[in-house]
Write a structure and sequence with these properties.
Layout lengths: L8 H9 L3 H5 L6 E6 L2 E6 L3 E7 L5 E9 L12 E3 L7 E8 L13 E8 L6 E9 L2 E8 L27
Parallel strand pairs: 7-9
Antiparallel strand pairs: 1-2, 2-3, 3-4, 5-6, 6-7, 8-9
């Protein structure tokens, strides 16, 4: 899922002066972040690839799969802010690009690909938050980028509030 860019008229001026999300994501250039989940270790290397592997003895990777490689032609998509309403954190905002041309899938024979979603890194530290496989050999990786937290499109909006009128219950 995803949605349209979220922003009202009061955000327009702030957005105009803010760095583009793609510029903020570029702060990761050359960095790699890892996430260990049970057997697998996932690795996101900015501007390069996403892969999964199992570490063997002596630190060498065994059972390694390239999930996708950077595709520079898709970089322009990084400036469209989307909403993920299915996120456990609520309406999570993200920008995304696709890394494709991964290793062939055992089941389909097609190259693996991964949608890389960049979100605000709440803890102020860049990190690989999660990797999931919603369909066979097509992955979604969520990467937290501290620099994105300063962008107006990633600021949490307060939910609308309404006054609740209360009256005492008639006793009986």
């Amino acid at each position: 899922g995803g949605g349209a860019r979220d922003g009202g008229a009061d955000d327009a001026d702030a957005d105009a002066d803010a760095p583009r999300p793609s510029t903020l994501v570029a702060s990761l250039a050359g960095a790699c972040v890892l996430r260990v989940e049970d057997w697998w270790t996932y690795e996101y290397c900015a501007g390069a690839h996403v892969r999964q592997f199992h570490g063997g003895e002596g630190g060498e990777a065994v059972d390694a799969f390239m999930l996708g490689r950077v595709n520079e032609s898709r970089a322009s998509s990084l400036d469209a802010v989307h909403l993920d309403a299915s996120s456990p954190a609520g309406d999570a905002r993200y920008v995304a690009t696709t890394y494709d041309g991964g290793d062939p899938c055992d089941l389909t024979g097609e190259p693996r690909s991964v949608e890389v979603r960049f979100v605000c890194a709440e803890g102020g530290r860049d990190a690989l938050h999660s990797v999931r496989e919603p369909s066979t050999c097509a992955y979604v990786a969520v990467v937290g980028v501290a620099a994105l937290c300063s962008h107006p499109g990633f600021r949490a909006r307060e939910p609308p509030t309404a006054a609740i009128a209360c009256w005492p219950k008639d006793g009986g």
